[in-house]
Write a structure and sequence with these properties.
It contains five helices and ten strands; from the N terminus they run αβαββαβββββββαα. By secondary structure, it is α+β, with helices and mostly antiparallel strands. The protein folds into two domains: 159 residues, no CATH class; 87 residues, no CATH class. It has a five-stranded antiparallel sheet with strand order 6-10-9-8-7. A three-stranded antiparallel sheet has the order 1-2-3.
Length: 287
C-alpha cells in the first residue's frame, strides 16, 4: 500500500510539473502580439486609460486608443477583408500614396511597389497618410456584414489616442489618428533613405523560384518551405527566425516583413533575430 501511495504521489507530482510546463508554454504563446507596440487597443493598459509599464506589457509612450480593447482588428478581419492587399484578411485600405524608393548604382534590380507588394500593408499605417483606426470592419458588439460597424472604412473609432499618458492628438504624435512623430516610425512616402522594399532577390544560385538563373554570389541561398509561397534565407530551424521572401509579379522580393516580424517584439524594432554582429544583414548579404 505504501509503495502504491508513493507511486501515485510521484505520478501526481509529474503530472503537476507537466501541467505547469504546459501552462508556461501557453502563457508564453498567448503574450505574442498583445505585449508589443502593435497592440494599439487598450487591452494591456491600465484601467485609467494610461499605459501601464509595470505590467511588463505596454510601455510609457506607446500609442494606443481607448476606442477598443481588441488587438488584431487594426490589421485583420475574419470577414469581408480587403482582397486587393497582399496580406492575410487585411482590414485596411491600401495607401493611395506615391513612394520614392531607394536606388543605388550598386543594385542589380529596381525597387518598386507597383506589384501590390506586401510592404504596402505595413505602409498603410507607417507612411502616416491615413488613420490607424481607419478600418474596413471596425469593432462591433454584434450584427452581420452590412450592419452598423461593418464596411465602415473612413469611420473613426470613438475614443482618444494616447501616447503614454498624453493625449496623442494634442501633443502632435498623431494627426487625425495617423502616425505623425518620427519616433513612432512614421516613415512618410520618401523611402529613398531606407532599405529597399519591393526589390527582387536574386541570390545564391536559385533557379525555378520565380527567377531563372539567379546566381548573384553577393547573396545567400534561398530555401523553399512547405508550399509555393514560403521562401526564406537563413539556417534556423525556427522558420520565423529566418529572413522571409515574398512572391510578387516580379518573382521573389524583399519586403518589410523580410526582416521584421510584426507579431513579435522579442528583438528590437520587431527584427526576426538579434542584429548583434550584423546578423540580420549577413543572413542575406554574403560579405
Amino acid at each position: 500500500m505504501q509503495k502504491t501511495t508513493k507511486a501515485l504521489t510521484v505520478s501526481a507530482l509529474a503530472l503537476g510539473l507537466i501541467t505547469l510546463a504546459t501552462s508556461a508554454v501557453a502563457a508564453q504563446a498567448t503574450t505574442g502580439i498583445a505585449s508589443t507596440r502593435h497592440n494599439l487597443g487598450s487591452s494591456n493598459r491600465s484601467a485609467g486609460g494610461a499605459t501601464n509599464p509595470a505590467s511588463g506589457l505596454a510601455r510609457a509612450g506607446d500609442i494606443y486608443t481607448t476606442g477598443t480593447d481588441e488587438i488584431c482588428v487594426f490589421c485583420h478581419t475574419p470577414h469581408a477583408s480587403n482582397t486587393a492587399v497582399n496580406a492575410p484578411l487585411w482590414n485596411k485600405a491600401l495607401p493611395g500614396s506615391t513612394y520614392t524608393v531607394y536606388s543605388s548604382g550598386t543594385m542589380q534590380g529596381t525597387a518598386s511597389l507597383a506589384n501590390n507588394n506586401m510592404s504596402l500593408a505595413c505602409l498603410s499605417c507607417h507612411d502616416g497618410t491615413q488613420a490607424m483606426d481607419n478600418m474596413i470592419n471596425k469593432p462591433t458588439t454584434g450584427g452581420n456584414p452590412g450592419s452598423a460597424g461593418w464596411n465602415a472604412t473612413g469611420s473613426r473609432l470613438s475614443g482618444t489616442w494616447y501616447a503614454g499618458t498624453d493625449d496623442a492628438e494634442a501633443t502632435g504624435n498623431t494627426v487625425g489618428g495617423a502616425l505623425n512623430a518620427k519616433i513612432y516610425m512614421e516613415l512618410g512616402t520618401d523611402l529613398s533613405n531606407d532599405h529597399p522594399v519591393g526589390i527582387p532577390y536574386c541570390g545564391g544560385g536559385q533557379t525555378g523560384l520565380g527567377k531563372t538563373g539567379c546566381a548573384d554570389q553577393d547573396f545567400n541561398a534561398v530555401t523553399q518551405g512547405a508550399n509555393a509561397t514560403s521562401f526564406t534565407v537563413g539556417s534556423s530551424s525556427v522558420v520565423k527566425e529566418n529572413m522571409r521572401l515574398y512572391n510578387t509579379a516580379g518573382g521573389l522580393s524583399v519586403e518589410c516583413g523580410s526582416c521584421h516580424d510584426p507579431h513579435n517584439s522579442e528583438q528590437k524594432t520587431f527584427l526576426r533575430i538579434s542584429n548583434s554582429g550584423s546578423a540580420v544583414c549577413l543572413t542575406c548579404h554574403a560579405k
